[in-house]
Structure formats: C-alpha cells, structure tokens
Amino acid sequence: MNPFLRLLHDLLVLTKYRITAMAIFTGYAAIAVEGTHLCHWEMIWPCLIALFCTGGAANTLNQIFERDKDAVMNRTKQRRPLPAGRISVASAYAFAAVQMVAAVLILALYYDSWLAAGLAVFTVVYYSFFYTLYLKPRHYLNIVIGGVPGSMGPLIAWAAMTGTLDWAPWAMFAIIFLWTPPHVWALAIKLREDYARAGIPMLPVVKGVDETTRQIFLYTIVMVIGTIALPWGVSLVEPAFARSAYYGAFAVVLGAVFLAWTAVLWKRRPVMPTMPLFRFSIVYIGALFLGMVLDAITHAQN
Fold first, then answer.
1. What string of DSSP letters covers 93-136?
2. Residue ranges of the domains in the chain?
3. Is the full-model pTM beyond 0.85?
4. Residue 1, CB-side half-sphere exposure with 13 Å CA sphere
5. What is the third-level CATH fold of 166-302?
6. What architecture is the 1-140+147-162 domain classified under in CATH?
7. Of 60, 93, 229, 302, which is most buried by a Cβ count within 10 Å?
8. Residue segments in the chain with a per-residue pLDDT below the cut of 50
9. pLDDT reported for residue 243
C-alpha cells in the first residue's frame, strides 16, 4: 500500500471509524428530530465533524492505553497500528489532542455552545480514562456502565443546535445505552479467547457463554420495551417525538426479530454462532435512528 494511504488508513483505525460513524448518524438524527436546522447543512456539517473528532479522540486514547492488550489479541495485533508498530505512541497522543481541540473549538466557537463542548470533553474522559483504565479491566459488567460515551452523540448534537438539552435527546441516549450490552456481548462471545488472553474480564470470560446468552436475552427484553416505550413517554412532554410512524414500525418489527433471535440463542447455547446477531444489532440500531430521521423529514414536508 502507498505509504500515505497506509498512514491515512492507520489514522482512521485509531478513530475506530466504524464505531464513530454511529455517533455521527445518531447525532444527525437528533438534529433532524429537533428540526430547526434540518436542511441547513452549513449548521449540520461542522457538528458532524465535531462528533467524529470527539469519538476519534476517545478511541485513539483507548488504543494508546490498551496497546499492550491489543498486542496479544489475534483480532487487533496486526490490524491496529500501535501494537503493529506503524504509528508511535507520541504521534497517537498528538493525533488525539488535535481531534479533541478541534471538537471543542467547533462546538464552543462555531456553535457558541459550551454545553456541547463540555459534553464532548466528558465523553472523551469517561471512555478513555474511566472506562478503559478503570472499569474495563476490573468488572465483567464493564460494558453496561461503559455504554455511556457511545450514547452521547444525540446529546452533543442537540446541545450544539439549541444550547440546551430536552427530553428527546435523553430518550435517544437511553435507546443506545440499552442497546449496547446485547450488541457488545454478541461480539464478546466470539472473541472470548482473545479477551481471556489479554486479561480483560468480559462477561463470557468470567461467567461463560451460557450466562452471557441469558444476559443478552434479558437485556434485549429491556431494550425492546425501552425502544417502544421511551418515544411514547417522551412525546407527552416533547412533541418532536410524537412523529414516530417509521420509527414505531422499525422498533416493533425489528425488536420482535431481535427478541426472538436472542431467545433462540439462549435456548441453543453454546452452539449457535453470535456474529450474525452482532451484525443484525448494527442494522437494528441504524434502522431505529433512520426511522427518526424519516419521521422528521416527513413531518417537515407536510
């Protein structure tokens, strides 16, 4: 690969760009639901860039702090640039700092929202330091509490657009938060030997596959109930969330599929593979937030 393209790819890997893309999309959904700047791309693009930089900074620091663990995991030792030696630790720190500064400057100066900037800093600190350095190495339920930073996109975007926070972005935050454990545990079952080798006490490592599939099923029940009930409850005080035709259909239909799948997974443990469920969970959360966007666009056109 061309050295420049190799470097660009490695920098993107440091940002965990696939995960960061979700924060961008959920943030855009919050902008659409809020509605004021639905078609004002000069207001939207800088916010999406700030969300990418926020996630990128957090994920870069995460990989700096976990580089020794990544070096013994088959999934990461060659793919990630730090354990593979393609990028130095000092360069990675500089890259994280540039992203963090860019996010804060955009949110604080372009949008004049120190609330949004503060939420971005909180996201980076929570994920990089509290989750990565303290929580993840110590408790098998790390991802339950650690789901907070991955859920912050709607809050940051809403605060950037309005300078305040309402019930709607908190509901969107809660939906992502409830979705995170079954999503991550489905992958953790597949990678349990890697996690064990690195000394990371993920649920399948500590409690086994049987208990993990049970927890996935139980958390999916809570998630599906939450994704259906939260928008309905919020719509009582936040009219923007009353527009839920597309979202409601996706939440009910895909939620039923998700619930049935996890029930079968638990019943057939530990034989049934979990990676298809992991991939479906990405489609599921994407569809929910796409439904919010479609509802917002439909309402704006009427």
1. HHHHHHHHHHHHHIIIIIS--HHHHHHHHHHHHIIIIIIIIIIT
2. 1-140+147-162, 166-302
3. yes
4. 9
5. Four Helix Bundle (Hemerythrin (Met), subunit A) (1.20.120)
6. Orthogonal Bundle (1.10)
7. 60
8. none
9. 63
